[in-house]
Amino acid sequence: MSIAAIKHLLEKQSFLIVATADTGGQPNAAPMFFIHADDKYLYLVDYTMGQTYRNIKANPRVSISVSDMETLSGFKMTGAVKILTQGPVYAKIYSRFEQKTVDLSVKRVIKGIRESKSHKHFEAGIPSAVVIYQINVKELTEINAQGKIERKYSSS
User: Fold this and answer.
1) Residue 114 confidence (pLDDT)
2) Which of 60, 123, 148, 149 maximizes the CB count within 10 A of its CB?
């Protein structure tokens, strides 16, 4: 099983929790905006470029978790990150990022109108300074509802 096998689950997500560590081993976990998955890579956008960004620059290994609330299972993916700041892959993923940002903003506004909620801090802008993380998933592990842990995919 590769990441393509859980692509349907990933595509339901707006954010994935990404765990990193600095060179001293200090852990950090933060939500990152999920944009796309193909057979080999996950693409996430970081528009804060804070601790996660600094950690990845120093130690380009990550662990990512995602949950499936329908089956009460979860997946852990580990892999190596390449930071993209330009080029054709960057442009393609950035375009998807723009569209997903607009789609999420529209859904949020419509939901707010239907529920008669105001959005105190609503922002519809698209950050101009972003980096894209291209994550080469090396291992995929499933944790099922009974607590069984099973390695589904591993590559060297």
Assistant:
1) 74
2) 60
